[in-house]
Amino acid sequence: MPAVTELNVNGTRRTLNADSDRPLLSVLRDDLDLTGTKFGCGEGQCGACTVLVDGVPIRSCLTPVGAIGPQKITTIEGLEKDGRLHPLQEAFLEAGAMQCAYCTSGMIMSGSALLAKNPHPTDEEIIGFMDGNICRCGTYPRILAAIKRAATAIQGGAK
Amino acid sequence: MKTTAPESDPLFPEQYELHAAPAYRFAAMPGRLDRRAFIKKLGGGLVVLSFAGRVWAQGESGAPAAPAGQRRGGAGARGGRGGSQPQNLDAWVHIGADGTVTFFTGKTEVGQNIRTSLTQAVAEELAAPLASIRMMMADTDLTPFDQGTFGSLTTPQMAPVLRRAAATAREALLDLAATQLAVDRTTLTAADGKIMHAASSRSLGFGELTRGQQLVRTIAADTPLKPASAWKIAGTSVPKVDGRDFVTGRHRYASDIVRPDMVFGRVLRPAAYSATLASLDASAAEAMPGVKVVHDGEFVGVTAPTSFAATQALAALRAEWKTTPQISERELFTQLRGGAPAPEAGLTTAGDGSLTLQQTYTVAYIAHAPLEPRAAVAEWLDGKLTVWTGTQRPFGVRDELVQAFGLTPDRVRVIVPDTGSGYGGKHTGQAAIEAAKLAQAAGKPVKFVWTREDEFTWAYFRPAGVIDVASGVRADGTLTAWGFDNYNSGNAGIAGPYVIPGKREQFHQTHSPLPQGSYRSLAAAANHFARETHIDELARALKLDPLEFRRKNCADERLHAVVDAAATAFGWGAAKPAGHGHGVAVGIDKGGYVATFAEVAVDPASGRVTVLRAVQGFDCGAVVNPEHLKNQNEGAMVQGLGAALFEAIHFENGRIRNPHFASYRVPRFGDTPKVEVILMDRKDLPSAGAGETGIVGIAPAVGNAICDATGVRLRALPLVPNGLKG
């Protein structure tokens, strides 16, 4: 089995030795100790394992690490820059958009990808984009509010 | 009727999982470890404690501080039991010389945000900044015994104990300051982590006051607590105290714990419930590098260097199972009745306009489906077993481990990191036992995270149920008769808020084909569904406004106030577009008063039902954290919408047919209505718990709204798994 020996994660080159068939989720969590990305189902159905690959949200539980190559991986640990939270992380705190928070990493990764692509999403666009992410505690209304709040904050910051 | 009643709580027998036989029992391990002198470990400063198990009825007050040299022996002697118990003293709060304040509770944080609400409550009593307080939770070596985090009991039962401990500490600090400053105690005030003497502008920090000392106080039952009307920190919307750890991914759930030299486990599941292992060929798995196969009786598992390798090793096992025929879904409700025929349903009108109505309501088995599956990391070190696991019952899981491995309690430690939800589903320790068994065999720490299929199959379900309701009502809308028979789902919330002479409610325990147990609100959701649907049927039959009908037959003033506030916010009675319906449901459970209103739209062509909005009024006494209480109520409605509309476990002959999120539908963004929560903040009343009762109203409110929109009465949960035409 060919091995993956290098990954670009959160702006850093990481060396490792992982079978290319292994899910990216397992490699991130078990080999690189980036446990902010969660295992929720292993079936691509819940979104808890969402990370960005070249800015595109993917389900890391179903993505073989061998498929990544030189693409840039961003995990929840990589959103904070120089001690400053991403506007969506701030917005989750302000909106209280979590209970057990096990879905939060995946929600923030999906939501940040949406905002990067579409800085002014409508409610329908947010719901459509985020529908693959499950929050079993049912905080969807607050997550929706957080994404809108972050959109406003990003807009304000850009002025 | 067949009744195979296990020994259980007479009040809430539906907590079946608490009385189930342990999942495994293995041979005893040799080993010895002395009882830990926990209080000694705390070091200097001030500690407030109680004698184990006596905290609910404390009479002692103001025990003098024991000199350091005598403290341990003195305390131990007073605690009795000669040291054979792992803990005979419960330490509730410690204030260190550096001013750090640590509170200790055996409760677990599973998303209900009690880490925040308890911190608020103690900060209020202690007069200390929120940021100075650490809440040590759910560690069986460090925190006082606790029966478990369920029943919405943290706020009404645990918070008062911690508040009293905080108040005891505050009073002790005032005593110390009076001595150190040589002033009259009544001239001192406690605020912001300091004791202040205004007249001389002097102040001493809590840490300074205790520096160089070892002070012990016993919780005093007569210590004054601040009334809710005087709260400054409690009663406000403090954000989740460690929220930043969650939005950055820094928090480590049990499934994120890493131990040195750790390997990964998987457990082989039987082909069906009650199946027994006929044969096992593990040769292919054992040939894989780094793989160990563990086989002890019915237990078969593997460990491997990565989770992927463990999954591959498990797939390489060749097992044959002996299965037995079992009840399938289509026979369920007949089975739950014990084979007796259902009473004949129907509405009868007498000459005077009075009615009698007999109807049957059913609820399906549903799964908790917590997003963090059951998970445990187990480590054996020097004869002591430590397990990090997500559970609502750390001490219960410790006891299960004690039994499974034949250990003494002091050689088992269970640590529960803040957990990825539970909803009543994480009361048992099977994952912990499985991880411990694998770790014992591997001779290394083992992480074992259940797969989603494990979670959907090998946990336990919210009980299915059949509920027969027979009622009578006069033409003027006065209820005159009520008979309510619940088969299998449980007792919680079985007694409704209505005043009906001679009313009768009875729970019948039966034999369940699937493993079942606690679920958020226990049977209150099922009982409210049946009762509030039936009440709605009576109102419609009499052509009375469903809300007025409820008001007329209910005398409880708190419930009336909640109903009125929510009805106004919802706009009950307002005009609505064609195809839309309004529904209401009310209830009282676990100290909470709830009124839920829903608006649905039904598309006549497709039969698609959309819940557009829900408004919920809630009264649980004095509110500790308004935003978090709203969050709980919103989430309860959204979660409850799954059980209302489409969630159901499908099963056939001992096998679950839909053990995946692709086939077991849970609410998603697109299913979520606009939700609004109206809180009645009753500062004159003690705070009740609030994690559960918010879920009981949504299913009947939605069902009643569907009937309002279409005239179609639905009496089974889920209501519309395939739309109204399905």
Counting structural domains of chain A, the number is: 2
Strand order of the largest sheet of chain A: 2-1-5-3-4
Q: Report the C-alpha radius of gyration of chain B, rounded.
A: 28 Å
Q: What is the global morphology of chain B?
A: flat
Largest sheet of chain A: 5 strands, mixed
Secondary structure tally, helices of chain B: 17
Binned, the helix content of chain B reads: 25-40%
- How many helical elements of chain A? 5
Describe this structure in words.
The complex is a heterodimer of chains A (159) and B (726). Chain A is an alpha+beta fold and 159 residues long. Chain A has two domains: 3-77, Beta-grasp domain (Ubiquitin-like (UB roll), Roll), CATH 3.10.20.30; 87-158, [2Fe-2S]-binding domain (DNA polymerase, domain 1, Orthogonal Bundle), CATH 1.10.150.120. Chain A has helices spanning 24-31, 87-95, 104-117, 123-130, 140-158; strands spanning 3-9, 12-19, 50-53, 56-59, 72-74. In chain A, strands 2-1-5-3-4 form a five-stranded mixed β-sheet, with helices on both faces. In chain A, α2 crosses α5 (140-158). The longest helix of chain A has 19 residues, at 140-158. The radius of gyration of chain A is 16 Å and the shape is globular. The N and C termini of chain A lie far apart (51 Å). The mean pLDDT of chain A is 96. By secondary structure, chain B is of the alpha+beta class. Chain B folds into three domains: 38-239, Aldehyde Oxidoreductase, domain 4 (2-Layer Sandwich); 253-324 and 368-458, 2-Layer Sandwich (Aldehyde Oxidoreductase, domain 4), CATH 3.30.365.10; 465-511 and 520-717, Aldehyde oxidase/xanthine dehydrogenase, molybdopterin binding domain (Aldehyde Oxidoreductase, domain 4). In chain B, 26% of the residues lie in helices and 23% in strands. In chain B, strands 11-12-9-19-16-17-18 form a seven-stranded mixed β-sheet, sandwiched between helices. In chain B, strands 14, 15, 20, 21, 22 and 29 form a six-stranded mixed β-sheet that branches. In chain B, strands 4-3-2-1-8 form a five-stranded mixed β-sheet. In chain B, β26 (651-652) and β27 form a beta hairpin. In chain B, α16 (626-645) crosses α17. The longest helix of chain B is centred in the N-terminal third of the chain and has 28 residues, at 154-181. Chain B is flat and about 85 Å long. Chains A and B meet through α1, α2, α3, α4 and α5 of A and α6 and α16 of B.
